Amino acid sequence: MSIPCTHLDQIHDVRPSGAGCVECLRNGGRWVHLRMCLTCGHVGCCDSSPGKHATQHFHETGHPIVQSAEPGEDWRWCYADKTQV
Ligand SMILES: [Zn+2]
Ligand SMILES: [Zn+2]
Ligand SMILES: [Zn+2]
User: Tell me, what's the pLDDT at 1?
Assistant: First the structure.
């Protein structure tokens, strides 16, 4: 059983920060998949990527919910509740 997400009020109408992971673009890193923060629009890379910047963004900011930024994917994930939203 998964716990329902209690962070839906932190979803805003955001625009992606860019076409790739913010930190990887800055550092010249590579990513596998992209996740977009639904609180501020930060684009970060997934946990299969070396940088894990989407997870890092959650730890730094507390923004809990990301949406897949991959074409054809629209699932959302809450880091705080570890559940699909
Ligand atoms: Zn949640
Ligand atoms: Zn990254
Ligand atoms: Zn954010």
Answer: 61
Sequence-ordered strand ranges (E) for 1-85: 34-37, 43-45, 65-68, 76-78, 83-84
**Domains defined along the chain, listed by start:** 8-72 (3.30.40.10)
CA of 4 to the centre of ligand 2 (A): 28
Residue 19 Cα, ligand 3 centroid: separation in angstroms? 16
Tens digits of per-residue pLDDT, 68-78? 999 999 999 99
Below-70 pLDDT ranges, the chain? 1-2
Q: In what side-by-side order are the strands of the sheet with 83-84?
A: 43-45, 34-37, 65-68, 76-78, 83-84
* Dihedral pair phi/psi, residue 13, rounded to 5°: -85, 85
